[in-house]
């Protein structure tokens, strides 16, 4: 109690910036008089993190940008030819390439479908979890944890096997249901069915995070609020829309951002399930495209330029999303 | 438990429908894993059957035998475990310190740092494969043990990529520890580092567990870095690469693939089962804040 008021008093000056209620940063802790003794302490605590992030995240980002402006192929890597500065030449080459734009569009659409499907499935099942008794809840929770725990590469191989035209059970089941067109149907042969197959795997392995997190969030909503609403005769939909959704919004922000980040950079699934980008590169996404350019054909500058484009798209998408939320008055 | 009171309000047929749905979804979600384990135990002839059956009458260990006879599989397995363990422990400790700094201290550039950590989460690590490749190549020339073809080239980047999310998540846990506790500790004569490691650390441990799940998964999952950084010294490769051996031009060895997949999935499943409770409560805790 005492500390609560103390916190509140300390927090007061910064109030204009933080509108979110609840236990906000007791960060004023060391700001008071007499705590001079440890002005460097936070930096000491931060030092390892900053060293690691600086060396292995920020510096590589700088390098990525730099390489994208250079002529950097096998010849330069091995030292046979001098590295030259090319300005935007790599980008120009990339943007003139029709395939690049196809890949960009495919990546964006595929990621968007993955994100929406994952969120829809995850949220629906989280709500379902709150509606059932212990045994079905445990069953679903364990199954989801199993899918979540499965490494991307094994998940990918298993899903390919499930949909194998000769030995997989899925086609057999579909045929058994009367869909005779699926007799020995090859899912990876057609561009859209190959993307669909990858989509299934991506949703399968990423909905559990959404489900568990949203479920944990729903559980943390005070029951009295929900009961009062239910007593007042509010419908389930209404309770969801007017009480739960707003209270869950911070969690939804987190799971949406995570989903965007994860689904936008899907690599393993595409690489393994469509064997490096699909027949005639029909299932290429930016990540695989950059990898193929850089490591398969040693065009490191082009690969880096693709990496920069990816980084920028991801930043823009996330920032736009955060802005939209802020406009709705949501505080991060 | 408090929820059951609300959910009991649902009319009976609906609740049964909901429970049936939950069980069916659970079965569908678990099916790929069931099929993976089943196929790993099927004898060679049965797995190549064009009439796949959801059971086997003659379970066999042949596929597992093939997997472990493959040279270095055991070594790949240990490499994967070692890389994941180092990343989990290192990133948890580093993130704990950093989270404490941003949650309990007020200093210049604090907000800037927070925004930086948030933005850092958005960086697609895959996009950094190329510069990291050259960084590791150059590091390898000056610092032995962390260049290309070493486990260090897998460990270091994964620590870096686990950190921003871990810091962000742990921050909530550190904030949740009452300030009065810290003041009381100092009044009782505890030093700052004593408070940090003997009081704060145990208190945020559930948060560390939840965080470690994410770093463990992303590291154990890694395929791109293993593929790009371990080029010649294959004895330093990790499990995902071992799996690829069973994909063959003349026809995939599905039994081997499924057995290797099973072996690769089991440690993660065990890890998940161990931390399951803490994971759910941890996410709840992070989310409540």
UniProtKB/TrEMBL annotation, chain B:
Pfam families xrefs: BPD_transp_1 (PF00528)
Residue stretches spanning the membrane: 20-41, 76-101, 113-135, 155-174, 195-217, 254-275
Keyword entries, A-Z: Cell membrane, Membrane, Transmembrane, Transmembrane helix, Transport
Domain ABC transmembrane type-1: 77-275
InterPro entries, alphabetized: BP-dep_ABC_trans_perm, MetI-like, MetI-like_sf
Localization of this protein: Cell membrane
GO cellular component: plasma membrane
GO BP of this protein: transmembrane transport
Membrane topology per record: Multi-pass membrane protein
Record-stated family: Belongs to the binding-protein-dependent transport system permease family.
Name the UniProt record assigns to this protein: Sugar ABC transporter permease
Organism: Streptomyces antimycoticus
Organism lineage string: Bacteria, Bacillati, Actinomycetota, Actinomycetes, Kitasatosporales
């Amino acid at each position: 109690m005492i500390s609560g008021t103390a916190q509140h008093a300390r927090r007061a000056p910064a109030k204009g910036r933080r509108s979110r209620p609840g236990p906000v940063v007791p960060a004023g802790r060391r700001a008071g008089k007499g705590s001079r003794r440890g002005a460097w302490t936070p930096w000491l605590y931060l030092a390892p993190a900053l060293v690691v992030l600086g060396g292995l995240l920020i510096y590589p980002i700088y390098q990525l940008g730099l390489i994208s402006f250079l002529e950097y192929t096998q010849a330069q890597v091995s030292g046979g030819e001098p590295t030259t500065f090319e300005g935007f030449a790599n980008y120009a080459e990339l943007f003139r390439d029709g395939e690049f734009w196809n890949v960009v569009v495919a990546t964006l659409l595929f990621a968007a479908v993955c994100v929406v499907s994952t969120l829809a499935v995850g949220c629906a099942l989280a709500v379902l979890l709150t509606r059932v008794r212990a045994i079905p809840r445990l069953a679903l929770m364990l199954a989801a944890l199993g899918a979540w725990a499965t490494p991307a590469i094994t998940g990918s191989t298993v899903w390919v096997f499930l949909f194998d035209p000769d030995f997989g059970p899925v086609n057999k089941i579909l045929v058994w249901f009367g869909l005779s067109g699926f007799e020995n149907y090859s899912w990876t042969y057609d561009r859209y069915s190959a993307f669909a197959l990858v989509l299934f795997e991506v949703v399968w392995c990423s909905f559990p995070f959404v489900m568990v997190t949203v479920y944990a969030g729903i559980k943390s909503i005070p029951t009295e609020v929900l009961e009062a609403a239910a007593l007042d005769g509010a419908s389930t939909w209404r309770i969801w829309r007017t009480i739960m959704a707003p209270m869950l919004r911070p969690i939804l922000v987190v799971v949406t951002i995570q989903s965007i980040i994860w689904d936008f950079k899907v690599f393993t699934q595409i690489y393994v399930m469509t064997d490096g980008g699909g027949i005639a590169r029909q299932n290429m996404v930016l990540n695989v495209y950059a990898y193929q350019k850089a490591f398969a054909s040693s065009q490191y500058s082009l690969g880096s330029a693709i990496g920069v484009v990816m980084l920028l798209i991801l930043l823009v998408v996330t920032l736009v999303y955060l802005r939209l939320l802020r406009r709705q008055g949501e505080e991060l | 438990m408090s929820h059951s009171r609300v959910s009991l309000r649902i009319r009976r047929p609906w609740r049964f429908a909901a429970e049936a749905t939950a069980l069916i979804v659970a079965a569908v979600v678990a099916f790929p894993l069931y099929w993976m384990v089943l196929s790993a135990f099927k004898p060679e002839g049965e797995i190549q059957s064009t009439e796949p059956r959801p059971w086997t009458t003659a379970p066999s260990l042949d596929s597992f035998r093939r997997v472990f006879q493959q040279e270095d599989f055991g070594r790949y397995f240990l490499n994967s475990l070692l890389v994941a363990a180092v990343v989990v422990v290192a990133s948890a400790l580093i993130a704990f310190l950093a989270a404490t700094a941003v949650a309990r201290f007020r200093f210049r550039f604090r907000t800037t740092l927070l925004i930086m950590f948030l933005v850092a989460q958005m960086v697609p690590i895959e996009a950094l494969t190329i510069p990291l490749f050259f960084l590791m190549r150059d590091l390898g020339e000056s610092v032995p043990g962390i260049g290309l073809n070493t486990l260090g080239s897998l460990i270091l980047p994964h620590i870096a990529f686990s950190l921003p999310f871990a810091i962000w998540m742990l921050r909530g846990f550190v904030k949740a520890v009452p300030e009065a506790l810290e003041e009381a500790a100092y009044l009782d004569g505890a030093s700052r580092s004593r408070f940090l490691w003997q009081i704060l650390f145990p208190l945020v441990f559930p948060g560390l567990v939840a965080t470690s799940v994410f770093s463990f998964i992303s590291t154990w999952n890694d395929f791109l870095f293993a593929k790009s950084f371990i080029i010649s010294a294959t004895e330093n490769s990790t499990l995902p690469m071992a799996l690829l051996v069973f994909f063959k031009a003349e026809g995939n060895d599905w039994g081997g693939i499924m057995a290797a997949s099973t072996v690769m999935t089991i440690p993660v499943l065990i890890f998940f089962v161990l931390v399951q409770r803490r994971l759910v409560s941890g996410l709840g805790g992070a989310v409540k804040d």
